[in-house]
Amino acid sequence: MVDKRLFLHDLSVVSFLRKNEGRYLKEWLDYHLAAGVDHFFLYDNVPVDETSELLKPYVKDELVDYFPVQGELMQIPAYNDAARRFRYVTRYMAFIELDEFLFPKTEQSIAEVADEIFSRDERAAALVVNQQVFGSSGQESADLSKGVLERFTRRAPRDWFIAPAEGVAPAGNIFVRTIANPRYIRYIVNPHFAYYFDGKFAVNSAGGRVTHWGSEPVLSDKIVVNHYVKSKEEFFDKFNDETLFEKLDRNDEVDEDIQIYHELRAENYTPPKKFERENYFRTLEQIILPAVRSDVPQDFYEGKLELFLTCRALAGILKRRYPKDNRGKFMEEAALRAAHRTHFSKMTFAETMLMINSLPPILSLPYPVVEDIRKNCMSFARQIMNDLKRNMRWDAFVEMGNYMDLLNAFGAK
């Protein structure tokens, strides 16, 4: 696991905002900050002045990055954009919506729960969390004088699930949301699930491997995501579908546990850390300087590619923020030299794909070691393309071909 001191953020949330959701933002942001989230990447499909105004203090405090987006069917592109652009900025990245609240079942933060589950299997790249569907609690209209967590306290049974059948879409608590190590995301395919580099995969809170949008049996002992249907009026602001509302409006059991958790966390709230220039440089020095000594044995580098690429990304951020401080440039080049040394250790397939997918911002850098990295990646890519062709994995073959074109383009300079 990569040293958490190397990241600007420990746990970020990515979300896609839709019509009429700005009125729920403050409660949602403040809850998740108390629960241990320290940054948000918000993609707004219906930008309005009220939303941007509400977010101003969060943006000023560097808690939110806000991106207005236009067009239809933009949620998945937004998710993939966040995973690609910010993979080395945040240790964990969760993908949820404004009607969902991540809820650990202990006093722990969300990241602490994830740490515990990830520690059991080094191949785990994501934790998938079952939802718990909360109905309208019998409310027809929206009472916005109170928060969502206070208004809606009745939910479906914990294991409620409607299986898919002809003409019937699945529904219920089998659906999951994802908390991922974004560096190993290959691409996100729907709002509930992502694909990862071969050798990495998603697990549920019991450590079981999960391969699609649902996880059964429904697990709710360690962490859940409370999904709020809200009142009928509010639901119809988002979905004009009476049948869907009747299916989801489950109010079987009273559950106020999230309010107790929120109150406890709010009482002990610690604001997210600020950008500490010298602390970041000190951490880079502790990790990188020993790694670039000429007498370091080769087996030292095994399994450390993710670490050194993360160091490279942080050094690049420091270099851009403080261009007169030569330590940023020095550390970036040193991190790339260390990453290059990992190429001659026992690399997993996931590490090879991580290296290749991290190339775009690296290939234009002015250090001599970049050409060595490019040549090694050309060799990796050729081998992978041969394997993909032999196994008729044509989508991945085309994807790797694009990287080959990129590598060739920089070699022609």
Features:
ten-stranded mixed β-sheet; single chain; Spore Coat Polysaccharide Biosynthesis Protein SpsA, Chain A; about 425 residues; about 20% strand
Helix-strand pattern: EHEHEHEEHEHEEEEEEEEEHHEHHHHHHH
Distance between the termini: 36 Å
User: What would CATH call the architecture of the largest domain?
Assistant: Alpha-Beta Complex
Outline the biggest β-sheet. 10 strands, mixed
**Overall structural domain count:** 2
Roughly what is the average pLDDT, rounded to an integer? 94
Strand percentage lies at: 15-25%
Task: Summarize the helices and strands and which ones pair or pack.
Elements: E1 9-17, H1 25-34, E2 39-44, H2 49-60, E3 64-68, H3 75-85, E4 90-95, E5 100-104, H4 110-118, E6 124-134, H5 148-151, E7 154-155, E8 161-162, E9 171-172, E10 176-180, E11 185-190, E12 193-196, E13 201-203, E14 209-210, E15 223-228, H6 232-238, H7 242-248, E16 253-254, H8 257-267, H9 277-291, H10 305-321, H11 326-342, H12 349-357, H13 369-390, H14 394-411
Parallel strand pairs: 1-2, 1-4, 2-3, 6-13, 6-15
Antiparallel strand pairs: 4-10, 5-15, 6-10, 7-16, 8-9, 11-12, 13-14
